[in-house]
Specification:
Shape: flat
Largest sheet: 4 strands, parallel
Distance between the termini: 56 Å
Number of strands: 4
Strand order of the largest sheet: 1-2-3-4
Order of helices and strands: HHEHHEHHEHEH
Strand content: 5-15%
Number of helices: 8
Radius of gyration: 21 Å
């Protein structure tokens, strides 16, 4: 919001997230300090300019989408591991973010991958998608049901 930016006031719903008794004036004076501004680094153009992007005042987080980034830099993710060039790009983004005093985040498809990037120094890691978690949980529970019933599952809902 002004004076830091040009954002319009828009809907009254965002101010509800600050609390029930927050006035529009209070929201407008406090919102800038309480919002997280994040950008995704997923294209070759963004990767080539990552240091400049990281230097943008007011930016809080650089977030890596490794699948789109891999496609963008010519090293798509085709299996369970990333190409060395993609791994190097992911490490460079982390370094650029931290060098500029910003946080770095990355999308991960599972806990093992999330731990790897958290151990490398990423500040924010996505562990699993909601659809992935629900699918895995349902498959696990269906396996228990079909074993107890002496059947095997066929199709997404068993036989």
């Amino acid at each position: 919001f002004p004076p830091q930016g040009k954002r319009g006031f828009g809907s009254p719903f965002p101010m509800d997230r600050f609390g029930r008794d927050v006035s529009a004036t209070q929201y407008l004076t406090e919102a800038n300090a309480n919002l997280l501004l994040s950008v995704q680094i997923e294209t070759k153009e963004a990767f080539d300019n990552v240091d400049s992007i990281a230097a943008v005042e007011g930016l809080d987080l650089l977030f890596v989408g490794p699948f789109d980034l891999g496609n963008g830099i010519g090293h798509p993710v085709l299996g369970s591991t990333f190409a060395p060039e993609l791994e190097q790009a992911i490490e460079r983004i982390l370094s650029s973010a931290h060098k500029a005093g910003k946080k770095a985040g990355i999308y991960c498809g599972n806990g093992k991958q999330a731990k790897k990037y958290a151990d490398l120094g990423y500040d924010f890691v996505n562990v699993v998608t909601d659809v992935g978690a629900l699918t895995s949980s349902l498959a696990s529970e269906m396996e228990i049901v079909t074993q107890k019933a002496g059947r095997t599952a066929s199709g997404p809902y068993g036989s």
